[in-house]
Amino acid sequence: MRWRGQRESENVEDRRGERRGFGFPFPGGGMRFPSSGGGGGGRGGGIGIVGLLIILGLVVFFGVDPSVIMQGQGPNGGQGFPDIRLPQQQPDATNFPAPGGQAQIERPKSAGEDDLKRFISVVLATTEDSWTQTFRELGARYREPKLVLFSGAVRSACGTGMAAMGPFYCPADEKVYIDLDFYRELKNRFRAPGDFAQAYVVAHEVGHHVQKQLGIADKVEAAKRRMGAKEGNALQVRMELQADCFAGVWAHRMEADKGLIEPGDIDEALGAASAIGDDRIQKQTQGYVVPDSFTHGSSEQRVRWFRRGYEDGALQACDTFNTGRL
């Protein structure tokens, strides 16, 4: 991707090095255990240290999809979208804050991390340009999201996110959260290298922000509250595949309007989409696949919908909710 010398977004918050207490109860309500990647409208209290240990055990040792866990109700009813999971991620004790602690211990940032921050800022800027133009063509105004860089754990309006849960979008504060260490995992563990694979991750999360702006996210969450686990998971899959398709629409604009895509970039994005399919992750973490528990879509589905958005370049191509074939 030809990114050097391009505009960097001003909507990046660098919270790396912050080490805060987990701060239960979560802002706007406690952490709940919904049946799928959202759902539930109740407001509860904090889960306490025992609940935290259960969560860590599930994520780390059993490869549980964190979207089943980290879905705290935000102040405006928004759920988080932890999208790209790190199966069997081993926690780094130095990154987890002591309960209730507020010490600010700065971890030195490497030159590579700072370069990656600039890259992410450029990618975010391209999404701003792309979606601003798309919304303008629809007669609407695009409200730019913030992107938060963190290390270890981070507070959001949807609850506390941890690095082991992967990047996520919180509609309650309209922010994307990414621990840059995830990109090392994407390259080494998922075997999905390349800068455009990294850009795809940002574009997918921004896709959830587009869904929020269009009112899709609120409708999906309302529908899931009336559903059981199996039906809710199926609806969430359509939500995630649409975000993949929106990422493809962004890539189309990147190539058509900006000329920033280089040979091999789209293959890198497709490789990342394939690497993080539910079927592949379940196979890695538990040795078998349970399609009814999918919340993000199979590798083949994620690749197909990203490609569809990229080849068509229009929002209308991304209607995952009214198609018989995902």
Automatic annotation (TrEMBL):
Positions with biased composition (Basic and acidic residues): 1-21
Annotated InterPro entries: Uncharacterised_pept_Zn_put
Signal peptide range in chain numbering: none
Region feature Disordered, mapped onto this chain: 1-40, 73-93
Stretches with biased composition (Gly residues): 26-40
The name this protein goes by in its record: Flagellar biosynthesis protein FlgM
Domain of life: Bacteria
Record keywords, A-Z: Cell projection, Cilium, Flagellum, Membrane, Transmembrane, Transmembrane helix
Membrane topology type: Single-pass membrane protein
Native source organism of the sequence: Methyloceanibacter marginalis
Protein localization: Membrane
Entry GO CC: membrane
Lineage, opening ranks: Bacteria, Pseudomonadati, Pseudomonadota, Alphaproteobacteria, Hyphomicrobiales
Membrane-crossing residue ranges in chain numbering: 45-64
Pfam families, A to Z: Zn_peptidase
Major localization class: membrane
